[in-house]
Amino acid sequence: MRTVQWNFQTNQLEMIDQRILPGAFEIISYTDYHALAHAITDMVVRGAPAIGAAAGFGLALAAQQSSASEVKTLRTDLQNAAEVLHASRPTAVNLAWALKRVMEVAQLTPGGADDVREAVLREAQQIADEDVEINQRMARNGAALINDGDTVIHHCNTGALATVDWGTALGVIRMAHELGKKVHVLVDETRPRLQGARLTAWELEQYGVPYEIISDNAAGYFLHTGQAQKCFVGSDRTAANGDVANKIGTYMLALAAHDNGVPFYPVVPTSTVDLSLASGDLIPIEERTPDEVLDLQKGGMFTAPARARENGWARNPAFDVTPARLVTGIVTENGVAYPPFEESLRRLVIG
Ligand code: MRU
Question: 239 - beta bridge partners?
Answer without folding.
Answer: 274
